[in-house]
Amino acid sequence: MTDLLAAASAAALVFAATNVDDIVVLTVLFVAARGADRPRPWHIVAGQYLGIGALVGAAVVVAAGLLVVPDPWTGLLGLLPIGLGVRALLARADDDGPPAVVGSLLGVAGVTIANGADNIAVYVPVFRSLDPATGLVWLLVFAVLVAVWCAAAALLGGHPRVVRLVARAGHWLVPAVFIAIGATVLVTSGVLPRLADLAT
User: DSSP class of residue 190?
Assistant: First the structure.
């Protein structure tokens, strides 16, 4: 029982540490869902599960030695949220509410994957060291915490102050958040120096 609690606690700590920025993304998406009806709340929840599932699945496959992820090329995934943010800035129809930066389940999953591409570097050594039973505990904890993250973001996204802030500045704030996320992924991944080396 002690081993089970220790495994669950460790999984919760790793999940929280690697997904704290997802709260911001999810909150923005839930506010956009209230204002623009896109994406729908179930798109956000299902897309988050799909995105986190893809990240964990990739980490498990890499940990098993079945695939090599070229590092730092995963940083190019940062172009996805940048593209979505720029598109929302260019295509905004009105200034009264947040633009629908992401309008579908797959869009939410894509942003989740792009925002969490660096998580794979943390998850791979962890899953490599776990036995199957402990790995299952980790997967269950991750699944529960995705729901907790979505619930917390939905509450934040429904808070009057947050809604008012996004209503006033949403036409540029929401796209700016996505562009900042993408830029952070690009810069911290180390892919930009690699691209510069290729260009010279």
Answer: T
One-letter amino acid at 70 equals: P
DSSP 166: H
Q: Where are the domains of the chain?
A: 2-199
Strands (E), 112-153: none
Per-position b or e across 98-124, b if 16+ CB within 10 A of its CB: bbbbbbebebbbbbbbbbbbbbbbebb
Distance separating alpha carbons of residues 167 and 158, to the nearest angstrom: 12
The DSSP result for 17-62, as a single string, is: HHHTTHHHHHHHHHHHHHHH--S-HHHHHHHHHHHHHHHHHHHHHH
pTM, entire model: 0.73
Q: What is the pLDDT of residue 1?
A: 66
